Amino acid sequence: MMRQNLLALMLLGFVQIWLAGCSTPAHVGEYPNQQRMVGKSKSSILACAGTPHKETSDGERTFLRYYREAPILEESRPVGKGSFATIRHGCWATVILIDDRVVDVHYRFVPPTFDASNDCEDIFDSCQ
């Protein structure tokens, strides 16, 4: 009986991963923290969001790239007395600056089929 339950959970996990691969990309909308960043200076972004994962420039634009992954406990779903793994997810946030001011913030979900907007919003939670 225990072996059948384990096999069923494994099969369910494989089906979930397979279905995620066939899904369409999650909709990336406009979110409160994302919109609140527009107009802020580079120094204020660095003060509240911290050091970016990567910083690049291409002439007049500067790009600050941040990444946040979901906490490990978010990645397993309880089932009965056990749990099974869910999709590992996170979000890239790219802050675009011109003349030291934020002009736009883009979110990109990882994987693209999973709405991980809460992970990107968390990056800017302390930016009020």
What does this structure look like?
The protein is of the alpha+beta class and 128 residues long. It contains four helices and six strands. The strands form two sheets. It has a four-stranded antiparallel sheet, with helices on one face. Strands 3-4 form a two-stranded antiparallel sheet. The longest helix is centred in the N-terminal third of the chain and has 21 residues. The chain is elongated and about 65 Å long. The termini are far apart.
Q: How do the helices and strands line up, and which of them pair or pack?
A:
Elements lengths: L1 H21 L9 H5 L5 H8 L4 E5 L2 E9 L6 E4 L2 E4 L4 E9 L2 E10 L6 H7 L5
Antiparallel strand pairs: 1-2, 2-5, 3-4, 5-6
Intertermini distance:
54 Å
| Main pleated-sheet profile | 4 strands, antiparallel
* Share of β-strand residues: 25-35%
Helix content: 25-40%
Radius of gyration from the alpha-carbon trace, in angstroms: 19 Å
What average pLDDT do the residues reach? 80
**Major β-sheet strand ordering:** 1-2-5-6
Helix and strand composition category: alpha+beta
The quaternary state of the protein chains shown equals single chain
Number of helices: 4
Spans where pLDDT lies below 50 across 5 or more residues: none
Please give the number of β-strands.
6
* Series of H and E elements: HHHEEEEEEH
Brief overview:
The protein has 4 helices and 6 strands. The protein has 128 residues and is α+β, with helices and mostly antiparallel strands. The chain is elongated, with a radius of gyration of 19 Å.
